[in-house]
Amino acid sequence: MRTKLIAGNWKMNGTLADNELLCKSIRTGLAGVDASQGTSVVLCAPSVYLSQLQSCLAGSSTIHLGSQDVSSHDKGAFTGEISTAMLKEFGVRYAIVGHSERRQYHGETDAVVALKAKAALAAGITPIVCVGESLAEREAGLTNDVVRRQLAAVIHENGHCISEIVVAYEPVWAIGTGKTATPEMAQAVHSVLRAQLHAASSVAAERVQILYGGSMNAANAASLLAMADIDGGLIGGAALRAADFLSIIASAK
Ligand code: 13P
Predict the structure, then answer these.
(1) Which residues contact 131 (CB under 8 A, 6 or more apart)?
(2) What is the spatial distance between Cα 90 and Cα 143, in angstroms, rounded to a whole number?
(3) What's the gap in Å between 233 CA and the centre of ligand 1?
(4) Which of 7, 174, 207, 217 has the fewest Cβ atoms within 10 Å of its own Cβ atom?
(5) pLDDT tens column, 183-198
(6) For the segment 113-165, what is each residue's pLDDT rounded down to a tens digit?
(7) Cα dihedral sign for 167, 130, 189, 178?
(8) Is residue 170 annotated as part of the catalytic site, yes or no?
(9) pTM of the predicted model, to two decimals?
(10) Looking at ligand 1, which residue's alpha carbon is closest to its atom 9?
(11) Is residue 89 annotated as part of the catalytic site, yes or no?
(12) Record: fold of 5-251
């Protein structure tokens, strides 16, 4: 039985003051929630704020720290990059890799994303591997091909570790647009991804949490999270509002 995972991707948002308020409100809101109830929560903050968030989350067993990216390299002449070892110094447990915004604006290929997942796994950081099709790809009937191709690269590079990843299905056309995939549309793609994991490893198919992301909010979370293969959410805009984020967490039963 897979537990639920609700991850907030703050993207390039926040200030010291806003983060303090948001983090404290989420902590307070979850104060009575026991980790044994199952749902894990991850906050993926901009890297410069990881230290701040590490302090804010100290002692929490339910809320974990995540980064929005990670380098595939260990160290050296990679200006602007952040290594797994650096992230670990700040208590980072999860790293988003291959977000569509990184693929689109920073030219990250399937191969690069697979290497980032590999670096994270080697360091004991759980990669949240994002896959998803554009509107043009969906309209051309290519959704399954695209997400399969993206996941295949990660499976190929990470073979025996594949049960340690988290997958996030984020249709690009649903991100930040207010257009959510219906629960049935999302479930259809999640089941394709589950089958692909199964072909790689039955353990992975059983264990790997597949999150949905793309305009998930307090109003639509419960119906998405009720689907058989939707094991959580990767939340953008609604994760910046404590009440909305807490409400999404509450719908993850
Ligand atoms: P929104 O929830 O703002 O659509 O963003 C989703 C996302 O990209 C999370 O990684």
Answers:
(1) 98, 146, 147, 150, 151, 167, 168, 169, 170, 193
(2) 37
(3) 9
(4) 207
(5) 999 999 999 999 999 9
(6) 999 999 999 999 999 999 999 999 999 999 999 999 999 999 999 988 999 99
(7) positive
(8) yes
(9) 0.97
(10) 236
(11) no
(12) TIM Barrel (3.20.20)
